[in-house]
Amino acid sequence: RVESVSEGEPPLSQGDNPSPAPATEARHPPGGLSDGKTFHDRVHDQIHMPRLLVAVIDTPEFQRLRKLNQLGSVPFLFPGAVHTRFEHSLGVAHLAGRLVKHLRAEQPELGITDADVLCVMLAGLGHDLGHGPFSHLFEHFVNEERERQQSDAQPAKKGAAERWTHEQMSVKLLGRICGGLPLDELGLPSWQEDLAFALALIEGLEPGEPFPKNVGRSKGKRFLFDVVANKRNGIDVDKLDYFMRDAVGCFGKEGIDCHISRLIRCCRAIETKGEIQICYEEKVALSLGDIFMLRAKLHKHVYQHHTVKAVDLMVADILRAAGRHFTVRGSKGPVALLDVVNDDVAFTRLGDTVLDAIEASTDTRLAAAQELIEQLRRRKLYPMVGYLQLEDGATPPDAASVAKYLVDNTPQAKEEDVHVEVVTIKCAASKDARNLVASDEVSHIIVINALARHN
C-alpha cells in the first residue's frame, strides 16, 4: 500500500506505523528519543513514543492493560467510562516526556540527559502494569484476604499481614519486560542503573526520604521523582492525565478549563527546603486549585458514588467466592485466584474479563460466584440503606460502630450483611493547602455510605 503524507505530518494512528525493526538492523539508528511511533490519543491528540517505549508496549504484559478499564466498576454508572489502563499509560508517558523536555530546554544547568527523559517516560508508561482486575478493587480485595488469613492463622497478629500494592507488581513486571530488551541499544547506555532509576520513579520518594544510591544519578535530580509519582503535593502527570481522561469518559468533557500545556510551560525545578523540587509560577495557582476541585468532583460523583461502591462490593464477593476454586495457568501449573499476586505469570493472564471466565466455567464449585454474577448482569445490586453527609470539620464516626448500630437495630440483620465506608473527600492533597496554593484553605466533604448485601 502506498499513501502520500504531507511533509512533517505524522500518521494518525498506531496502525499507520509499522513496528520498529530490531535494534540490530542497520536501517534504524539505535535508540534515542527521535525514532519511534506516533499514536492518536483522545485527550492529547498525536503523541510520540520512542523506540524503547514501543518495545515495551509490544509485549503481552503491557497489552494486557487493554483488558483493564481505567475506572473498574464505573461503567455500571457512566456507560461511556470504558477507557483503559492502556491508553492512560500512554498518556502519562507522553506528559512525562513533555514536562522533562521542557525543564531541560528552560534549565540546561539541571543536566537532564536523553537517558533521564527516557527513564521518566518509561516509569510513566509502566506505572500501572501491576493493576489487577478492576484495578484498585483487586488491591483492596487481596489485602483484605491476606488480613483474614493472617487473623485465622494467628489471631494475636490480626492486621499484621504484609500488604501487597500494585506499585510493587508494576516494578516487578516492568523489570521483567526490560530484562528481555537490549536497553543499551534502545537509548539507555548505562542500562542497569537507568532501569533501577526508572523503577524507583514508579514508587516515588517521600519528602526527606534518602535518595537511592543505585540509580547512577546524584540527589540533584531528586526533582525527577516529582514527575510521575509526586509524594510531595500530589501534582504529577499521572493525575493530570487521569483527571482529564476520567472527566471526558464520564461527563463527555474535561470538566474544568485546565490547559496542561500552560501548566507545563509554567513549571521550574527550584531548590527549597534542601531539595530540588518541581514548582509552578504563581499565575497558575488557580488552575492548580481547579485540578484539586476536579479531583473532589470526581470522587463525589464518580469514584465514591454508591452505585459504584455497590458494584465493587459485589465484584469483591464474586472474587472471594471463586478465590480457591478458579485457577489460572501460572509459571508452575494452575494457580488459585487468591494466590495470583504471588505468581507474576498467572497475574498477567488476568483482566476484567475474569468475571466472564468464572461465569462460563463448568466447575460446580463456582455456583455461588456465578449466582452473584447473574445478579450483577440483571442489575440486582446491593442496596444503599443509609447515607450521611457531615459538615466540614465534624468528626466522622467509626465504620465498625455504625455497622454494629445498623445490625442491632435491624431485624434479622447479620454483621456480614452490612458494609459501611467512611469517605473523606479533600479539595487539596495536603493538610495545609497553602503548601500548594497560598490563598486556598482545605475543605472536606465527609460521606458515609452504608450498603447491604441483600435486598
Structure description:
The chain is of the alpha+beta class. The chain has helices at 51-57, 60-63, 85-106, 114-126, 136-153, 166-179, 191-203, 225-228, 237-251, 260-265, 285-303, 306-322, 344-347, 354-360, 367-377, 399-408, and strands spanning 36-41, 45-50, 267-272, 275-280, 327-330, 333-336, 384-390, 418-426, 444-452. The strands form four sheets. It has a three-stranded antiparallel β-sheet, sandwiched between helices. It has a two-stranded antiparallel sheet with strand order 1-2. A two-stranded antiparallel sheet has the order 3-4. α12 runs antiparallel to α15. It is globular, with a radius of gyration of 23 Å. 37% of the residues are buried. Residues 1-12, 21-29 and 429-448 have low confidence and may be disordered.
Which terms would index this structure?
16 helices, two-stranded antiparallel ribbon, 455 residues, 3-stranded antiparallel sheet, disordered N terminus, alpha+beta
DSSP summary, beta strand count:
9
**Radius of gyration, in angstroms, nearest whole number:** 23 Å
The percentage of residues in β strands lies in 5-15%
First-residue to last-residue Cα separation? 59 Å
- Spans of at least 5 consecutive residues with low confidence: 1-12, 21-29, 429-448
Largest sheet: 3 strands, antiparallel
Helix/strand/pairing category: alpha+beta
String of helices and strands: EEHHHHHHHHHHEEHHEEHHHEHEE
The general outline is globular
Mean pLDDT: 86
The count of helical stretches stands at 16
